[in-house]
Amino acid sequence: MSITPALKAAARSAYRDVWRASSVTFRGDDAVLQAFRQKMRLDAVNAAQEAKAPESYEQYTKLFREIGVVLRKNIVQGVKVGESEGKDLYRVNIRKETELGDNDTVKSPPPVDTSSRSARKREKLGAVPPHSDTTQPPRPLNYSALKRAHKERKLPELREEDLEESFVRGSGPGGQSINKTENNVQLLHKPTGLRVSCQETRSLSLNRARARKLMLEKLDKIANPGMSKEQMKAAKQRERERRRRKKAKKKAQLKTMEDGEDSD
């Protein structure tokens, strides 16, 4: 079985995710950033050559996604910014995605005294200029190729044994039929931890069906990045705008040529 365009699109999305994560994690240290990206390119090329079956292709894609998560949450870059009293000073790049441990001094550091001259000097040394990444991401698929990949994509399977369903009282407008009945459907997809809730109608059976449809759409976004129904609608709208701009540009060029011929 050959590698489908949907699998290739998912692999490209995972590669771009690792690329962006490395830009954030190793910001301010160009040597480490370039070394990591060179290793990443080499691993991606080797994976593309070794993965002959769709199963192995999916495994490599999953591995790249896990690397992106680890880079964002578990890797903290320290950059040397100066010296003080014979000791090196480092700036640690802790971001909002970084998973902190149970050390309260790390989670809630004490306020820094900026009144003294030495404190202001340390604060100035700690200011590292932001890293400007000028590398362009891979060019996305055009709308025709994206449409074909959307049709050939593999929809995820939604199994009832993977769902945890609960019902709570509704809220909002609708009177007693909403506020005093448990028609709000809450779904939890245990393998992924995704949650959805649905209270679109007064009918519990319709809300249950709609909640499963919403869950399937979320799983589709994860399994087929860039090719879900909502994303295809947005891509179709962008294609319409592109064609409209192209048509307007061509019309303006023809008008310019006609005006030039009339002036001659």
Structural class: alpha+beta
Could you list the spans in which at least 5 consecutive residues all have pLDDT below 50? 127-138
Give the mean pLDDT: 76
Largest sheet: 3 strands, antiparallel
Rounded to the nearest angstrom, the radius of gyration is 26 Å
Oligomer: single chain
The helix/strand series, from N terminus to C terminus, equals HHHEEHHHEHEEHH
Strand content: 5-15%
Biggest sheet, strands in spatial order? 3-4-5
Q: Helicity, in percent?
A: 40-55%
Write the layout of secondary structure elements.
Blueprint (H helix, E strand, L loop, with lengths): L4 H21 L4 H21 L3 H21 L2 E8 L2 E7 L10 H4 L9 H9 L17 H10 L10 E6 L7 H4 L4 E6 L4 E5 L5 H20 L5 H35 L1
Antiparallel strand pairs: 1-2, 3-4, 4-5
InterPro entries: Complex1_LYR_LYRM7 (IPR045298), Mito_Transl_Release_Factor (IPR052405), Pep_chain_release_fac_I (IPR000352), Pep_chain_release_fac_I_sf (IPR045853)
GO biological process, one term: mitochondrial respiratory chain complex III assembly
GO cellular component, one term: mitochondrion
Describe the structure in your own words.
This protein folds into two domains: 129 residues, no CATH class; 64 residues, Double Stranded RNA Binding Domain. Helix content is 55%, strand content 12%. The chain contains nine helices and five strands; from the N terminus they run αααββαααβαββαα. The relative contact order is 0.10.
